[in-house]
Amino acid sequence: MPMNQLPVMSHASVPVESNQGDRFAWLIDPVSPAEFERTYYEQKLCLVRRADPGYYERLLSGHDLDTVLGSHCPSYPEVNLVKGDDDVPSSSFAHASGRINPLEVSKRFDEGATVIFTQLHRRVPTLARLCGALGAVLGSRIQTNIYLTPPDAQGFKPHWDTHDVFVLQVSGRKQWSIYDTKISLPLKGQKFKADRDDPGRVSEEFELGPGSVVYLPRGLMHSARSTDEASLHITLGITAFTWADFFVESVAAAALDEPQLRQSLPIGFTARDFSSDDKARIFREKLAVLQARLDPEPVWQHFEDEARASNSPVFTNLLAPRLRADPISLDTVVTRRADLPVSVENGGGTCAVRFRDQEMTLPGRVFPAVQFATTAAEFRVRDLPDCLDEQGKVTLVERLVREGVLQTGVKEALT
Fold first, then answer.
1. For the segment 8-36, what is each residue's pLDDT rounded down to a tens digit?
2. 8 A C-beta contact, residue 52 and residue 211
3. Can you give the residue range of the structural domain that contains 370?
4. Do 374 and 395 share a domain, yes or no?
5. Which pLDDT band holds residue 314 (cuts at 50, 70, 90)?
6. Which of 137, 178, 306, 410 could, after both became Cys, cross-link 24 (CB 3.0–4.6 A)?
């Protein structure tokens, strides 16, 4: 299996105040997003080795893990421990209530257990921003699992996942083994089972060092083991919406409008004298009804809303401006929340603003001002297009700040 192994001489800083595509490009640099989609996505492994060990350090540190473990009061299974394919009994590192005992976690780590922090993007803003960026670009639900593995240890034995993953090596090294793919693009119900699925022969081996990243499409059998030092890596899980999901949702939507699709299967269809020809004829009749009722547009919109809702932005700077009690004026400088995907549609008489799982409807005449406000990185209120008078500009910005689309007090005033 050919692998991309280009070393990179590049910056280590995360593009914070940039668009979503910039963060995705930074993640896989020097592979371009277009090349990734064309050559690797859902097709084969993509390995990027970098001579920059600090490339991903700003995303996550040991200090972040200590903060979550020691002061966020996580519970099992938010923090879990594994050793090989076996879960470490939660009673050995968590209280009866489920609350994690940080000291016991560190002891189990010393004994060779891998510490797994699940859904850590809900607690660490840098991870949340990266998940939101990938979700916006890929149109998928993104989550993180963090793996802290002691020296010379294996977290999981060979297996495949039912979702694609990016593995970002933050510190330490891991030796990866890749096996023959058993199922191409498995669905959720096609999970790996150790007692049934033999890994087979190793097809590739490579070492993932700090600052490097590997992409694994779902279904690719793999395993990893740390070297002679502790390893910390971030796994970004990509749960995509499949065509199977799309068609299931389409049928369900059509059935809401068509009673024939809600009818029960015919009485006696299990009988031996119920012929295959009759079954085929009835199926064709119902399929014709379904095709007449199918409307893909609402289904596209449903999945767009699902993707936006599942990749929530990081909402900081909400209460601090309210403490300052500075009223918004024409000279107020506002910034767009770079983590919040916003779409604006001009319907003529009305203007629709969609963000997260919400929609604002405004008069169509304000479209130029709304489009400006949701695409400019930073501006003064008075800079809005003159489709609004001065009070109208202030009112629009107040509304967009209240809804979390814009924010105040983040950057220095424009000169």
1. 333 345 554 446 778 999 999 999 999 99
2. yes
3. 320-408
4. yes
5. confident
6. 137
Cα angle 128, 25, 352; round to 5: 65
Counting the structural domains of the chain, the total is: 3
Contact call for residues 332 and 399 (beta carbons, < 8 A): no
Beta bridge partners of 362: 351
SS3 84: coil
- E-state strands within 211-267: 213-216, 222-226, 231-239
The CATH number for 160's domain is 2.60.120.650
Instruction: Among 221, 239, 257, give the residue marking a domain's end.
Output: 239
In single-letter form, the type of residue at position 322 comes to: R
Longest dimension (CA), the chain: 85
Q: Give the CATH number of the domain where residue 372 resides.
A: 3.90.930.40
Confidence at residue 85, expressed as pLDDT on a 0 to 100 scale: 66
Q: Is residue 124 within 8 Å of residue 60, measured between CB atoms?
A: yes
Last residue of a domain, one of 254, 275, 302: 302
Same-domain check for residues 64 and 163? yes
Alpha helices in 355-389 (DSSP H): 367-375
Per-residue model confidence (pLDDT) at position 49: 97
Residues 6+ away with beta carbon under 8 Å from 89: none
Report if residue 1 sits inside a domain: no
Quick one: pLDDT at residue 4? 45
Write the CA distances from 414 to 18, 247, 389, 394, 409, integer angstroms. Answer: 18, 50, 22, 18, 12
Q: Tell me whether residue 154 is in a domain.
A: yes
State how far the Cα of 64 lies from the Cα of 211, in Å rounded to an integer: 18
Residue 32 and residue 149 share a domain: yes
- Residue listed under structure tokens 């089972």: 193
Instruction: Name, of 144-158, 211-225, 356-370, the range with top average pLDDT.
Output: 211-225
Give per-residue pLDDT as tens, 46-101: 999 999 999 999 999 999 999 999 999 999 999 999 987 677 999 999 999 999 99
The string of DSSP letters for 138-181 reads: HTSEEEEEEEEE-TT-BSS-SB--SSEEEEEEEES-EEEEEE--
